[in-house]
Specification:
By secondary structure, the protein is α+β, with helices and mostly antiparallel strands. It has two domains: 7-108, no CATH class; 126-262, no CATH class. 51% of the residues lie in helices and 10% in strands. The chain has nine helices and five strands; from the N terminus they run αααβαααββββααα. The chain has helices spanning 7-24, 33-61, 73-108, 135-147, 149-156, 163-172, 216-219, 224-232, 246-262; strands at 126-133, 175-176, 186-190, 193-198, 203-209. Strands 2-1-5-4-3 form a five-stranded antiparallel beta sheet. Strand 3 (186-190) and strand 4 form a beta hairpin. The relative contact order is 0.12.
């Protein structure tokens, strides 16, 4: 909550709010929401111009207390005045941005948005499987650094529950033409999955086409040794190597094919999600 009296926690809260908005504004499910966001941003920019000017004034008025690390007061005064000058230049640029944003808001206010056609999980549509950010994403982002993005995709694939994941994406509007990504995001593809991640903003999301699933091995439905056997010798497709439970695997495969025939969907995969952290769905 803002204090209105202590600039330090209020600045921290402002940074966190802008960081959240930078992520959330990558997509807008309802385009009419953009006008309200622009209005709030216009007010924020006006306040930012005022804040910069006030901090510049504070540097000027407090310059008699300034010194460098060696105790040189003359150097400290020079730096305080230089800081104030740069801040006033920044405030002037923010003032120009405010005028541009005001004009954009006025133009946006003249737009009449029409309802979008009903969203369907057609072939080629992309759903969000899971989205993690902040502390929930740290371990997997570190895993990308240490073992590569494929290792993170293989773990995140455990959140994919087939039809249940597709239904949840449709219900919550997490369906896209292409995986949403910001200018600084990185993408990696493995089988049917696309991983979008950002080490600086500490978030990552896993996406796939609504009508496609990756290999059973990647999903954890089939032992890799069994997959290798079936690839090398089609006649042994029903024979599982020692220790592999072939019955449940084949049953799931049959269910998958039946589901594909029923509709452009994917199979129900009944399993626990990996780890103890809950996956967040991407809503914006």
């Amino acid at each position: 909550m803002p204090t209105f009296t202590d600039p330090v926690p209020d600045a921290t809260e402002t940074y966190e709010a802008m960081r959240a908005l930078a992520h959330a504004s990558r997509t807008f499910e309802q385009p009419e929401d953009m006008y309200g966001v622009l209005g709030d941003l216009l007010g924020s920019v006006r306040s930012l111009e005022q804040v910069l000017t006030q901090i510049a004034t504070a540097h000027e008025s407090s310059r008699n207390r300034a010194a460098d690390d060696a105790g040189d007061r003359a150097a400290g005064v020079r730096d305080a005045l230089a800081t104030a000058g740069e801040l006033r230049q920044a405030a002037a640029l923010i003032g120009e941005a405010e005028r541009r944003l005001d004009a954009a808001s006025a133009a946006a206010g003249r737009i009449a948005w029409h309802p979008a056609p009903e969203l369907q999980a057609d072939a080629g549509r992309v759903i969000n499987v899971v989205f993690l950010q902040g502390g929930e994403a740290d371990r997997l982002l570190d895993l990308i650094d240490q073992g590569g993005a494929d290792a993170a995709i293989q773990e995140l694939a455990g959140y994919d529950s087939g039809d249940e994941t597709v239904d949840a994406a449709l219900e919550n509007g997490y369906v896209y033409d292409t995986p949403p990504q910001g200018p600084l995001d990185r993408t990696v593809q493995l089988d049917a999955y696309t991983l979008v991640y950002n080490q600086d903003h500490r978030h990552l999301g896993l996406y796939r086409p609504a009508d496609a699933l990756p290999s059973p091995v990647l999903l954890g439905l089939e032992d890799p040794r069994h997959a290798a056997t079936t690839t090398e010798s089609p006649s042994s497709a029903t024979a599982a190597p020692s220790g592999v439970r072939a019955g449940p695997i084949l049953a799931r495969e049959a269910a998958r094919e039946q589901s594909r025939r029923d509709r452009l969907g994917t199979p129900n995969i009944h399993r626990q999600q990996p780890g103890t952290q809950a996956g967040l769905r991407l809503g914006r």
